[in-house]
Amino acid sequence: MQKEKLKKGEVTRQALEDAAVELFMEQGYHATSMRQIADKAGLALGGIYNHFKSKDEIFEAVIVDKHPYKKILPLIQEAEGETLEEFLGNATRIVINELTSQQYYVKLMLIEIAEFDGVHGSAMLKELVPNVLPVFERLVKTRKELRVVNPVVLLRSFIGMVLSYMITDIVISDSFLSKLMPSNMLDAYVDIYMHGVLKGDSLNV
Amino acid sequence: MQKEKLKKGEVTRQALEDAAVELFMEQGYHATSMRQIADKAGLALGGIYNHFKSKDEIFEAVIVDKHPYKKILPLIQEAEGETLEEFLGNATRIVINELTSQQYYVKLMLIEIAEFDGVHGSAMLKELVPNVLPVFERLVKTRKELRVVNPVVLLRSFIGMVLSYMITDIVISDSFLSKLMPSNMLDAYVDIYMHGVLKGDSLNV
DNA sequence: CCTACCGATCGGTAGG
DNA sequence: CCTACCGATCGGTAGG
User: Fold this and answer.
1) Which of A21, A81, A122, B119 is the most buried (most CB within 10 A)?
2) What whole-number distance in Å separates Cα of residue A40 and Cα of residue A23?
3) B76 and B47 housed in the same domain
4) What is the mean pLDDT of each run of 10 residues along chain B (205 residues)?
5) Which nucleotide across the nucleic acid strands is nearest to B58, CA versus C1'?
C-alpha cells in the first residue's frame, strides 16, 4: 500500500494500528486488551508504550488514520452518470461497496458512540466536514434537479442513509429476516433516498 | 408504572435491570461491572446471582424487556392524519420523540452491534417483526399513495431512517456542526424520507 | 440476600 | 523493544 520507505518506528506503529482496528471491530474497545494488540502486532506488551501512551490514544489514532473518506472521496468524484439520478445511484453504491469491504470503520463509529458516548466524534467531524461538505455544496449549485438545497442537510441525510443501510444490514444479516429481503435491497434504498416512499411531488423543503 | 403488586423477587429483578440499562447506556457493556450494577440497585454483588446467572444474561434480559416498540406501537396506531403524508410525518415524530426520551434503547442497540457483533439481534427481531410488520402490511394495502409496496422494504427503510437521524444526532450534537443544522432538521428528514432528495417522480421500485 | 473469597486478567511501568 | 512486575479490578462462587 505505502510506496515510500517508512522508518521502522513508523512500520511498527502502523502494525499496531492495524492489529488494533481488527480487534476493536471484532470485540469492541473494552473487551480488547493491550496484550492482544501486542500479540497480533508481533511485539511484547511493553513495546506498545514506545508508540502510544495509552489504550485510548490507540483508539484515537485509529479513528483518525483509518477514516475511509480519504479513499472514498476520489472514487465519488470519478463516479459517472448523465443524470443526477445516475450519479447519485453510482456514488451511493461506491460508498457502500467501499464501506462493506472495509466494514471496520462503521463498526468503529458504533464503538465510539456505544463505549465513548461520541467523545471523539467532534475531532473526526472537524477533519471530515471541511473536505466533504464542499462536494455537496458544489452539487447543490450545479444540479437543478435537487429538491434539497441545503448542503448540510444533504450531507447529513446522505451519510445517514448509508449508515442506516449498513446497520440494518448487520442486524438483519444472520436472522430469518434476511430471506425476506429483496435481492436488490440496495437499489431500493437508493431509490427511496432519491424519490421517497410516497408518490407525487411535494412543495417545500 | 406497574400497577399490579409484584413479588419482592420480581421487584429486585426490575431494579437490577433498571440499574443495568442506565449503566450500559452510559458506559457500554464491558466497561460496566457487576459491582456497579449491584450498588446502583441497592444490593450486594453476590445478590445479583439470585436473579441472573451471568452478566450476559442481564444484557439479554434488558434487550428484550426494555424494547420500546411495545410502548411505541400503540402510539403510532393512534397517530392521526388526513393524508398519508400527515400520518407518516406524525408517526415519525412520535417514534423519534419516544426514542429520544428513552434514548437508552438506541444506545443498547449500538452496544449490541459494537460489543456483541449483533448476536442478540436475531432474538430481538423474532419478537419485533411479527408485531410490527403487520402494521406496514396494512399500510401498503390501504394506502395507494405509496410508491414502495414491499412491506419489508418499507419497514426496514422506516427503522433505518429513524436510526440514521438519531445516530447522526448523537455524533453531531456536541460538535460545531450542530450550529450549522437547520432548526427544523427533523421535518427535513421526514420530508426526504417521503419525497426524496430529487425533484420529479420516478417509475419503478 | 450478604460476606468473604477465588483465580484470572487488566492497563501500565521500571529497569535494562 | 523485552522481561518481570505492580496494584487494581474483574466475573463469579461457597457457605451461611
Assistant:
1) A21
2) 9
3) no
4) 63 95 93 96 95 95 88 87 88 89 82 88 86 93 93 95 92 88 92 92 48
5) D11
